[in-house]
Amino acid sequence: MINIEDIVNLSHDAGKLILDIYQSNNFEQQLKSDSSPLTKADLASHKLIVNRLRELTPNIPILSEESTNIAWQERKGWQEYWLIDPLDGTKEFIKKNGEFTVNIALIKNNAPVLGVVYAPVLETTWVGEVNKSAIKITPKGRVGIKSIRHQANETWNVVGSRSHQSDEFRSYVDKLEGEVNIVSMGSSIKLCLVAEGAAHIYPRLGLTSEWDTAAAHAVVNSAGGKVIDFNTGQELCYNTKESLLNPLGYQLRVQIVAYLMMNFQNALIDEFFGFGDKFVMEKFENQLTDKLHQTSSLIIASHNMDLIHKFCNRIIEFDKGSIINDYRIDSPK
Q: What would the DSSP string read from start to end of 8-63?
């Protein structure tokens, strides 16, 4: 039986370790293979959390942002596992704005059933557990929290990323009816603001990984809210595919492909199409997928910038039926 207080205490211990490094200004920053930043605080927190979880629950596997080299063949058989982000918001940590968190989640049958999010600088912890009410812990004590539904004629309170606000985010917000108040925030605090009713919605249309959302997802669920896959309208699931990236919005996917095509990044396009649910390609009819991929490869190889721009624009306009007719796979115009 897992005592959630043990997990809360663990998050606080990891936070103390992070704060010691944060206040020392000796981050020892480096870049990971995906060009995201990594500091010794990430690694120290990771080591502490993993070692403690192994002591507390020796039979439950652990997946951390800093140890993702677990084969899908092994991972896909997990019915229960810990999913952690030892320092969510490393960019905020480096900027020293205090908006970073320790995230610890327990996943069962592809859903988060327990989550703890701790913001060390803010001295605030959000806790969610299945079949229990969410709580927020501060130096003043513990209070129950609950998400709220937007009411007609009420100003929308929308939380957005401080480091990743995109054109897609702004487009989404522009479609909301009525006045909109945008609150910028870093890390998993954004979802926690939804959980505690400080925001109605957090539209995340850019890249995130499963460890970015899992702990706060559990908190939102316990607070009566939902975390929804933008593409399917269904609740976000975990460990259902080889890729550990959460699903992307369709328009952002095609824009990424368009960018790669215009910069002749053939290998990156192949890698992009290879992720989990095939990102862009899943939105095209099955019979069109292979032809479209071949077509794009030939168009890229032509190095004809006018042709590439036309092809990219056609994809972004979601005009599926005429793509192959206009751009023959045997000989691009």
A: HHHHHHHHHHHHHHHHHT----EE-TTS-EE-HHHHHHHHHHHHHHHHH-TTS-EE
